Amino acid sequence: MAELTVGQLAERSGVAPSAIRFYESRGLVHSRRTTGNQRRYAQAELRRVAFIRTAQRVGLTLDEISDALATLPDGRVPTKSDWHRISLAWRPRLDEQIRRIELLRERLDGCIGCGCLSLRSCALNNPGDEAAGRGTGAVLLEP
Predict the structure, then answer these.
(1) CA 71 to CA 69: how far, in whole Å?
(2) How many CB atoms lie under 10 A from the CB of residue 142?
(3) Distances (CA, A) of 119 to 57, 75, 114, 122
(4) What's the confidence (pLDDT) of residue 88?
């Protein structure tokens, strides 16, 4: 099987070389070093990069992706059955994310949810700055 340089892997995967090096620093992809200390990636690493990018697109963190890849024997690339098993395990996490996004969509036009009282409508949603006790950030948009 032919090996790819970081540039070739980047071009084939559509991911920047810096991202590939970052993924490697996190143990998500693997390379070997030539005698000149250049990275060489097995073509199979394309599948790992695709797996990472797909998981990121649905909102998973690199830690969650790393945990999933760690379930693969000997660090091999995910197969179709691996992807099925892993995606089923992610389903509750994604369902919760969808629920939060739908809630955000429903509330977005009425209040930014920050508890800052800077908008005229915030006084209606947060009388007496009650949201301050719930913490920082957009607490009114949290379920």
Answers:
(1) 5
(2) 12
(3) 33, 51, 10, 5
(4) 92
